[in-house]
From TrEMBL:
<feature type="region of interest" description="Disordered">
    <location>
        <begin position="1"/>
        <end position="20"/>
    </location>
</feature>
<keyword id="KW-0813">Transport</keyword>
<feature type="transmembrane region" description="Helical">
    <location>
        <begin position="271"/>
        <end position="290"/>
    </location>
</feature>
<keyword id="KW-0812">Transmembrane</keyword>
<feature type="transmembrane region" description="Helical">
    <location>
        <begin position="235"/>
        <end position="259"/>
    </location>
</feature>
<dbReference type="InterPro" id="IPR036259">
    <property type="entry name" value="MFS_trans_sf"/>
</dbReference>
<keyword id="KW-0472">Membrane</keyword>
<feature type="transmembrane region" description="Helical">
    <location>
        <begin position="69"/>
        <end position="87"/>
    </location>
</feature>
<comment type="similarity">
    <text>Belongs to the major facilitator superfamily.</text>
</comment>
<dbReference type="InterPro" id="IPR011701">
    <property type="entry name" value="MFS"/>
</dbReference>
<feature type="transmembrane region" description="Helical">
    <location>
        <begin position="99"/>
        <end position="118"/>
    </location>
</feature>
<feature type="transmembrane region" description="Helical">
    <location>
        <begin position="185"/>
        <end position="207"/>
    </location>
</feature>
<feature type="transmembrane region" description="Helical">
    <location>
        <begin position="29"/>
        <end position="49"/>
    </location>
</feature>
<feature type="transmembrane region" description="Helical">
    <location>
        <begin position="386"/>
        <end position="405"/>
    </location>
</feature>
<feature type="domain" description="Major facilitator superfamily (MFS) profile">
    <location>
        <begin position="29"/>
        <end position="408"/>
    </location>
</feature>
<dbReference type="InterPro" id="IPR020846">
    <property type="entry name" value="MFS_dom"/>
</dbReference>
<keyword id="KW-1133">Transmembrane helix</keyword>
């Protein structure tokens, strides 16, 4: 039996790795792999959303609108979307761990430079550059797990990796708000850059050497053919758009949240607003268990459950009540991570060839959804208040429900 999953279009078949060489749950190597990817996931999402919880302060100091300030998030996610495919191709030649290491360290260095930038254009440009650097991890992490972890444990391993993403995303907003309340948003950026660098060191010290990776010659034409093949696969295409639509909702709600909570009738300070992002812990718990629930009840049922949770959560947040907003955010977060875990793990499982590129295409469309959701919601909030954000979110979940009607 042979494996043609080079992802770079190499014509020479590669022998399938023996399952005996794959990492099994409970073994020291498996624990090291999970620890490494968890730490890297924390670092990436610390840096990816480092400005999201600080947008009102950035708007005030730089004298820009919410939509303009949201570019400090959207520029990063858009850059990730652009860089994912090239970096996934490079990982086919140079190795998953090498690309992931370069990604987390270079992004951390850029993060440490951000507090010293005073020009808005330069700040957004550096955030875009940071997005290119960050792309190396999501472009390769799920392919690494699919290759190195035993097949029965891949969904759980990806769920744990995504749990690290949620911890990073939560810590980014919470720590940023807390530090900003006692100092300023620039100090917050420096603190988070330092934490990300420590996570990068943990990743490098713990990640096991890839045992099942086979390098392949990078052929741009072959990569393009592989990507076209994925985009012509109806099942993969549906999964790609499902992930993006869930991300539109999540990006919309959390990008605009700070503006709503800092304005009347709430008027909350940065530290208190940052505490709302502790709700990301819901995503951590959801990510670790949703794979098992999907195996029991089916992927489509789990996806519909995520849509219902996210939609209900958005509707609950309409009330001008802190309790209602907290409850709504819990539901939105649980719904988002349900959809994301199911869609992303299904892509890895259903891509017969070019797994790295399959995951990269998923994440490219996913991050485009994030950029569109954040910027569109900021503009909608500027024009119609929180009601505009709710409309954007419900329209996205309605589109997702129509897509999920087909086989998933």
């Amino acid at each position: 039996m042979v494996d043609t999953r080079t992802g770079a279009g190499a014509p020479t078949p590669v022998p399938l790795p023996s399952d005996a060489r794959k990492l099994a749950p409970g073994t020291p190597a498996y624990r090291r792999a999970i620890t490494a990817l968890f730490a890297a996931g924390v670092a990436v999402f610390l840096l990816l959303y480092v400005t999201q919880g600080l947008l009102p302060e950035i708007s005030g100091e730089l004298r820009i609108t919410p939509a303009e300030a949201s570019l400090t998030v959207s520029a990063t996610t858009a850059a990730i979307a652009i860089a994912l495919l090239p970096l996934s191709a490079l990982s086919e030649k140079y190795g998953r761990t090498r690309v992931m290491t370069a990604s987390v360290f270079s992004a951390s260095v850029v993060g440490l430079a951000l507090p010293f930038v005073t020009d808005t254009g330069t700040f957004v440009a550096l955030r875009a550059l940071q997005g290119v650097a960050l792309a190396g991890l999501p472009a390769t992490a799920m392919a690494y797990l699919a290759e190195e972890v035993s097949p029965a444990a891949v969904s759980s391993a990806i769920g744990l990796y995504l749990a690290g993403n949620s911890i990073g995303g939560m810590s980014s907003r919470f720590v940023a708000g807390l530090v900003a309340q006692w100092s300023n948003w620039r100090v917050s950026l420096g603190v988070l850059g330092g934490i990300a660098l420590l996570c990068a060191v943990v990743f490098r010290l713990t990640v096991p050497k890839a045992a099942n990776f086979r390098p392949a010659r990078v052929n741009p034409g072959a990569v393009a053919r592989t990507v076209r093949g994925h985009l012509r696969n109806p099942l993969l295409l549906r999964l790609y758009f499902l992930g993006a639509l869930f991300m539109v909702v999540f990006g919309a709600v959390f990008t605009v949240l700070g503006y709503r909570l800092s304005a009347p009738p709430f008027g909350l300070p940065e530290g208190v607003i940052g505490a709302f992002f502790l709700i990301y812990l819901v995503g951590t718990v959801t990510s670790t268990y949703i794979g098992r629930l999907a195996e029991r009840f089916g992927r489509r049922t789990a996806l519909y459950g995520g849509m219902v949770l996210a939609s209900a959560g958005v509707l609950v947040t309409i009330a001008d009540s802190v309790v209602a907003i907290v409850a709504g955010l819990v539901l939105v977060t649980a719904g988002f991570f349900t959809g994301h875990v199911i869609a992303s793990s299904s892509v890895s499982s259903n891509a017969a060839t070019g797994r790295a590129q399959a995951s990269a295409v998923y994440l490219t469309i996913y991050y485009i959804g994030n950029s569109v959701g954040g910027t569109l919601a900021a503009a909608a909030y500027h024009r119609a208040g929180w009601t505009g954000v709710v409309v954007v979110c419900l329209a996205s979940m309605g589109a997702a429900a129509l897509i999920a009607v087909r086989r998933i």
